[in-house]
Specification:
Elements: H1 59-76, E1 80-87, E2 91-101, E3 106-107, E4 114-115, H2 120-133, H3 158-162, H4 175-183, H5 191-199, H6 215-229, H7 233-245, E5 266-267, E6 276-277, H8 287-290, E7 293-294, H9 296-308, H10 314-320, E8 324-325, E9 331-333, E10 338-340, E11 343-345, E12 348-350, E13 353-360, E14 365-371, H11 382-394
Antiparallel strand pairs: 1-2, 1-14, 2-3, 4-7, 5-6, 8-9, 9-10, 10-11, 11-13, 12-13, 13-14
Helix pairs in contact: 1-11, 2-6, 2-7
């Protein structure tokens, strides 16, 4: 089982984390393994092609993108993918390829819901930063003031947790946790259980000394938000973040169900190593680090909101965007967000799904990639491969995540 996300090269990926012991105990998102029943949500928003600020890319460029996307699909054996790119003055591109359900052959479309893995972290940290804006908590407060039993809790700050510099072991890398989850991926986990997997392992380094992507950090921050607000995290995210951001098709679920319509997800992170349909696996093990669900249009909107900081005070957004080096050359990690070759955002991966919603402020360009597998190809996340292929054509001076791949020519 992989970490949760930012990994790009497996360094820190997917959305899968959760867990903690807070005093007093707060409601986690551990729900029973009830049958997943589809839920209804608001009708899809208009596609970007209807936006007056955008025109379609030229046929030649669109054909180049088509060819590049199809090549990655073939090589990485991706069932279905939707790719969206919007740049004022240059054009827009929104196309889906492949299938959303291998059993029925239903096509992938841009209105389908998917699990967004570690993109969830951006919402969780935003909720925390809103509390900072309200003067209810400080970034340099220590986690031990809110949660008991955290190793080095009297020295680890909330800033270090959000910036992946706490030194706490990533629970989703614990061998026993992996075995337990793979043995029964429909079982629920509580935040406390997840923290126990982390805290039984030694700390990795002194607080603030290094960058190390750990889902444990987010579980702790989620518990802090719950303790300060007195509300379950899913309510805080829904009311304080999704509502003001205008995201009507993004949800923090309280069961394994996905809103309809949705794409089926496929993963090789299984006990047998064979690819399985993971659509209705219980994501409680990811909680505030990777449990949320969204679609292309909402992710497009959120990418801009996240990068420009419209939900936060300018000074708080500036703190968020102060990056420190991470394990990707030329990239930096801020507070629940990365800057990779100028693209600001966060990738997400959870068994069966990957997303890559990012924003390039200097061009006011957004790119969103969603796919229904997290199975790697030659050690690379498939979302990263698509990001490379698309940006090498569309933004050659800002290729994500840094090196220029061979781009197939149309025709």
């Amino acid at each position: 089982m992989k970490p949760t996300h930012v990994r790009l090269r497996r360094a820190c990926a997917a959305a899968v984390a959760a867990g903690l012991l807070i005093a007093p105990a707060v409601a986690g998102s551990a729900y029973g393994a009830a049958k997943a029943t589809p839920v209804s949500v608001a009708a899809p928003t208009p596609t970007p092609s209807a936006d007056t600020d955008f025109r379609p890319l030229t046929p030649a460029v669109a054909a180049q993108l088509d060819a590049a996307v199809r090549q990655v699909m073939r090589e990485a054996q991706v069932p279905g993918v939707t790719v969206g790119l919007w740049a004022p003055g240059k054009g827009s591109y929104l196309r889906s390829f492949g299938v959303a359900d291998k059993a029925t052959g239903a096509p992938m479309t841009s209105d389908l819901h998917v699990r967004i893995g570690s993109e969830t972290k951006t919402f969780t940290v935003t909720a925390l930063l809103q509390l900072v804006d309200q003067g209810k908590v400080g970034l340099d407060d220590h986690i031990g003031s809110f949660v008991t039993g955290v190793p080095n809790g009297d020295r680890i700050t909330l800033r270090q947790l959000a910036g992946m510099r706490s030194g706490l072991f990533n629970y989703s890398l614990d061998g026993d946790f992996i075995k337990k989850l793979q043995a029964d991926p429909e079982q629920p986990f509580t935040p406390r259980q997840l923290l126990d997997y982390s805290f039984r392992n030694p700390v990795q380094f002194e607080p603030g000394a290094e960058f190390d992507y750990s889902n444990t950090n987010l579980i702790l921050l989620g518990l802090v938000v719950e303790k300060i607000t007195g509300r379950p995290l899913h309510e805080v995210i829904t009311q304080d973040v999704l509502g003001p951001a205008g995201l009507r098709r993004t949800v923090f679920p309280t069961s394994p169900a996905l809103p309809t319509p949705y794409a089926h997800g496929y993963t090789d992170q299984t006990a047998s190593g064979k690819v399985e349909d993971s659509t209705h696996w219980n994501p409680s093990w990811a909680w505030v680090a990777g449990e949320m669900i969204s679609d292309v249009q909402d992710l497009r909107s959120w990418a801009q909101t996240l990068a420009t900081g419209t939900l936060l005070k300018p000074t708080t957004q500036a703190e968020r965007l102060k990056t420190t080096p991470m394990d990707i050359p030329g990239a930096g990690y801020g507070l629940g967000v990365f800057d990779v070759q100028g693209w600001i955002g966060h990738n997400g991966s959870i068994p069966g799904y990957e997303v890559l919603p990012v924003y390039l402020p200097q061009a006011r360009a957004a790119m969103v990639i969603v796919l229904n597998t997290d199975s790697q190809y030659k050690g690379q996340e498939p979302s990263t491969l698509f990001g490379e292929a698309v940006t090498a054509i569309a933004t050659p001076d800002h290729v994500y995540p840094g090196h220029k791949p061979v781009v197939p020519k149309a025709g």
